[in-house]
Each structure stands twice: as C-alpha cells, then as structure tokens.
Design goal:
Layout (H helix, E strand, L loop, with lengths): L2 E3 L13 E3 L5 E6 L2 E5 L32 E11 L3 E10 L4 E10 L5 H10 L19 E5 L5 E3 H4 L15 E12 L3 E11 L6 E8 L4 E9 H9 L9 H5 L4
Antiparallel strand pairs: 1-2, 2-3, 3-4, 5-6, 6-7, 7-11, 8-9, 8-12, 10-11, 12-13
C-alpha cells in the first residue's frame, strides 16, 4: 500500500504532480503515468560549503582526570559499611597526577523490604538523587560520601550539588569530591549492583585521611574509615600517558 503525500515545500514538482513517499523515506514524484523519479528529502550541501564540529574544551583538573593520562590502579579491597540490605565497598583507587578516582561499589539485596522500598533503595544508590532544599535535614534516601584530610579540610558529595562552574585558570579551594556515573545491574530479582567513581582533587598528601559514608535509608549510620595517602601518591607517580608524545600536554599545569 502506498501513502500519498503533498510534496515538501523545498522539493520542486509541477502543481499537477502528486508525491508518493515509500517506506525508505524517499519521495517518489511522477511526471507522467508509469514514470517516477526520486527526490531526496535530505540533500547534500552545495559545493564549497562545509559543516564545523563543536570543539569540546579540556576539563579543568578539579573536574576529572586528563583524558590522555592512564592513571595507576591501587588495590584497596575494603568494606566501608554493611547493613542487612546494603554493602558499601571501596575495591580500588585509580591515582592520577592531579587527583584520584575512588571506585565505589554498592551491593544491595531486597531481603524483607517491600517492592517499593526495594526499588527506592536501588535507584537512590546511583548518586543522582533528586534535588532538595536547604534549611532542613538531608533526605534519608540520600547516599552521602565524603573525605577529610589530616588538616581538617573536607569535601563531600553534598557540596557538589551547589558547586558552580569556574574558569580553568581560576581553580577553587580544594579539596573537591565529584560524583562520576558508572554502571548498575541485577542478579536475578533480589540482588542489585551499582558502581561509580568519586573524583578527589587535589591528590591527597602522603598521610592518612578519612573516608566517610552515611545512608539512613540503606541502614548505614555515619561510618568513617582511614585511607593511607602514601600508596596513593606512589601510584600517581607511576601514571603515564596513552600516547607518549602527549604527555607534556597533561603534565603542564593550567594557566
């Protein structure tokens, strides 16, 4: 079955001709009985014209690692917190010259939770919980993660929500902790897995610092563990470049 259409305005055809559009999206126009010619809806650019691709600027170091840098993986294999329905783990840290990526793993199970609570638990683990207003307590479903350095400075995922953009040559006061999306999945209907990254900038000093987690809805109260910055700094010194000729580009400080 053929569907008749009025020819598009930008396609020339005599007034007494009717356009026929086939299922491939090509307009078929007839000038006489039994004769058809193809008229493309999407036409090529005229000779001499060209399109320009958007130029994406390099992210500043406090926003994430350089795309040219490999990083060096440090095995941590530490359980941060556990409840009847949730386990938070820190399996690895990937160290870069300017900061490090904390790889967070969240494993959850339904257990005695209702289907609605089980759904809410899994979706709130993604780190992209809906916005909330200040002046009141934090939502119980909000997974909260943070670090505190030995000098008392700290950074949390809560602060990321109100952080504005800054010019590359105007770095903010650190430390900063930025949530980076990862992956998620299910094992059957009763066990869920999700993983994501936390970009910590700047690179921690070669001393002990704290990693904190709290998730009331997941049954996890405020839990603080210690991480050693010395092996992280050592791993960062082993970070290289995917292409040796580009190494100078990401080693050069901003500004």
């Amino acid at each position: 079955m053929r569907v008749q259409r009025t020819p598009p305005r930008n396609v020339w055809a005599p007034a007494d001709l009717k356009g026929l559009v086939n299922f491939s999206g090509i307009a078929m126009v007839s000038g006489r009985p039994g004769g058809y010619r193809e008229v493309m809806f999407f036409e090529a650019l005229p000779a001499g014209e060209e399109t320009t691709a958007p130029v994406w600027p390099e992210l500043p170091p406090w926003s994430g690692p350089s795309a040219l840098e490999t990083g060096a993986v440090l095995a941590v294999e530490q359980t941060v917190a556990r409840s009847p329905n949730v386990v938070l783990r820190l399996p690895t840290i990937r160290a870069f010259r300017s900061g490090c990526m904390l790889d967070v793993e969240v494993v959850s199970r339904q257990g005695g939770l209702s289907d609605d609570d089980w759904w809410d638990l899994r979706t709130s683990a993604f780190g992209a919980y809906r916005g909330f207003r200040g002046g009141g307590p934090l939502p119980s479903k909000l997974l909260r993660l943070g670090v505190r350095f030995a000098d008392g400075r700290k950074a949390t995922t809560i602060e990321q929500r109100r952080r504005g953009t800054r010019a590359r040559d105007d770095p903010p006061a650190g430390p900063l902790l930025s949530w980076r999306p990862g992956s998620s999945g299910m094992h059957g209907r009763e066990v869920g897995f999700s993983g994501f990254g936390l970009w910590l900038w700047p690179l921690p000093a070669a001393e002990v610092f704290e990693f904190a987690a709290e998730w009331p809805f997941g049954g996890i109260g405020l839990t603080i563990i210690e991480l050693d910055g010395a092996p992280i700094a050592a791993a960062a010194s082993r970070s290289g470049s995917y292409w040796p000729e580009t190494e100078q580009a990401w080693r050069t400080p901003p500004g």
